[in-house]
Amino acid sequence: MENKYKQSSLWKHIDGSVFEDIQNIDLSSFRKPGSLNNRLASWDPYDKSTYRYYKNILFNLVTAMPKEYFQLYKNIGNASLGAPVSVKVNGQEMNLDYVFSIQEMLFCFEPLSSVETICEIGAGFGRLCHSVLKNFKKIKKYTIVDLPSCLLLSRKYLREVLSEDEYNKIEFISNLEADTLRDAEFFINVDSFAEMETDVVKNYISLVDKMGSYFYSRNTVCKYHPSMIGLEEFDKNQYESAISLGLCKKFVDIFDSQELDLARKDYLNLYQPSVSWRLLKTEVSYPWQYYQHALYTKD
Questions:
Q1: Residue 259 lies in a domain
Q2: 51-86 burial: b if 16+ Cβ within 10 Å, else e
Q3: Taking Cα atoms as reference points, which of 69, 74, 99 lies closest to residue 87?
Q4: How far apart are CA 23 and CA 180, in angstroms?
Q5: What is the rounded distance in angstroms from the CA atom of residue 68 to the CA atom of residue 215?
Q6: Which of 69, 117, 209, 215 is the most buried (most CB within 10 A)?
Q7: Is residue 149 helix, strand or coil?
Q8: Is the pTM of this model over 0.85?
């Protein structure tokens, strides 16, 4: 009679490969990434050939958002240009770039609802500019200061996703001409001060101090070693360059909450433009807890 509890063909294969030397198993290391237990208890932490973890993080992040989040995202319109990896929630296709834009807008809702002029230092392809101009019609001028190569990309992208009237609100300024900026109430920097030379960051913050009324930063609060995330092979020259840049240079275990709390205090002090400014609000920038939202206002 056939055994009604028989082993599946999948587990016959596993028994013959992963478990072939089970008698000699080393209990001190059988749960490491790439080891036997990853076939028993969970997916392997190493997942180099799929989007599984990325999409799961994105999906969980979006499903935890408040209702107003989805309306802001819907107002943006075309957020899928460039074929990003996305998930669908409440009938909307959503990608991580614009998830961050919505987080940033919700965090900065007060200044975005009151100012008419904005300067973003380092806008990438222009996702936040796109999102703000679609959601805050009061904005009259949005200046982007960036490297010439990035300006070429943001010009091309924003011309495609914005109306002519919206696009005409934007002024593009090369980083070397940042001192030509004449008006900006609200300064924004997202994830780029940590990639600039320290003196350059301080020069930008001096510009913020001189001209702005609000300043928003979402940057890393520390440095960390690539081995902390399981990266054993990396470009040593790029690594040495990266750890010398920005304002927050302290090495931290980015998966230790106490170490991160201490690093956040340093971050908030370092990004305060001057004693004339005070911290209006701050919170962790999920899902990466070594990033921090910080909004300052000038007294």
A1: yes
A2: eeeeeeebeebbeebeeebbebbeebeebeeeeeeb
A3: 99
A4: 72
A5: 23
A6: 215
A7: helix
A8: yes
Q: Write the pLDDT tens digit of every residue in 245-268.
A: 999 999 999 999 999 999 999 999
**Which of 68, 200, 177, 195 lies closest to 119, judged by CA?**
177
- Residues 6 or more apart in contact with residue 280 via CB below 8 angstroms: 110, 214, 295, 296, 297
Q: How many domains does the chain have?
A: 1
**Radius of gyration, CA atoms only, the chain:** 23
Distance CA 228, CA 230 (A): 6
Instruction: Give 140-190 pLDDT, tens digit per residue.
Output: 999 999 999 999 999 999 999 999 999 999 999 999 999 999 999 999 999
Q: Is 151 helix (H, G, I), strand (E, B) or coil?
A: helix
- Cβ(182)–Cβ(228) below 8 Å: no
Q: Could you tell me the CATH number of the domain that includes residue 206?
A: 3.40.50.150
Q: Is there a domain that residue 152 lies in?
A: yes
* Residue 158 burial (C-beta neighbours within 10 Å; 0-12, 13-18, 19+): buried
Q: Which residue has the higher pLDDT, 240 or 40?
A: 240
Residue 256 lies in a domain: yes
Whether residue 227 lies inside any domain: the answer is: yes
The boundaries of the domain holding residue 171 are 99-298
Return all residues near 272 (Cβ < 8 A) that are at least 6 apart.
Answer: 278, 279, 296
How many C-beta atoms surround the C-beta of residue 195 within 10 A?
A: 15
